[in-house]
Amino acid sequence: MLQRLRTALVLAIVTGLVVVLVNMHSSAVFAAFPNILTKTTEYSIDLATLPPCPPASPTPKPHPLPPTLNQWQDSENSGDYFSQVTPTKAGYLVWSKFPVHVYIEPPESMSGKQSEAWVNAILPAVQEWNTYLPMDVVEKPEVADITIVRKAPPLQTSHNKILRARSAQTSYEFYTSQNNLLSHRFTILLSPSQIGNYLTASARHELGHALGIWGHSPLQSDALYFSQVRNPQPISSRDVNTLKRVYEQPTSLGWSVASLQFKSQKSKVKIEDGLGINS
Ligand SMILES: [Zn+2]
Prior knowledge:
The protein is α/β, with parallel strands linked by helices. It has a single domain (10-278), classed as 3-Layer(aba) Sandwich (Collagenase (Catalytic Domain)). 24% of the residues lie in helices and 18% in strands. The chain has six helices and ten strands; from the N terminus they run αβααβαββββββααββ. Helix 4 (112-130) packs across helix 5 (196-210). It is globular and about 50 Å long. Bound molecules: zinc ion.
């Protein structure tokens, strides 16, 4: 009986371990009316509501830099915004197995041609980041590390209780891979309101989050600026400097999980913009 209670307790702890952090973008108003430059704030994570670190979580250690990032030198010393990047309970969201597999889900609600055009608007963003971190586009969703879906993020209540539409949402979860490594995977939702240039820019920005820049830049000239801008910018030196610093940090991700207990988790905890919401 005591043994059973103990097992139940361990399971209960372990089920709280898959975390989905959601990074919401409240610039849909601007996306719908690209001529109006609206400044909207977004992005806050309530760290206090995060579940505890997995008991079997590997000791955080840095991984070797991938050669593309290792070779990166910013001759202009343009700085970074690493101080804005939030580590998670598993450490920094660093990939250590390359290439990172991206699956772009062809939208079923669109005609074949439109669906193809949508996918084609995302591809340049993957290509741009691939210069700094090896990425590839996969055809099978089950092998994806990052899945990109054309779907409106759920409406979000802001602090003044107004429901706001979001242009994009990026979330992650932890799992244990077959070879027993603590792993993560991302889902990016891009709102159907995003079209053309803005769609590519939105994909570029969200991919930046999914590659480990879990925070925003205060400068408009960076791809990870906190709001959409009239003239979307390509990846800046500051974006890459920040990415490089993230990849120099210790993480529990990509290291071996000692205990088998961690494998039994199933549920997800979802955190949106500082409001703890269970899903
Ligand atoms: Zn963002």
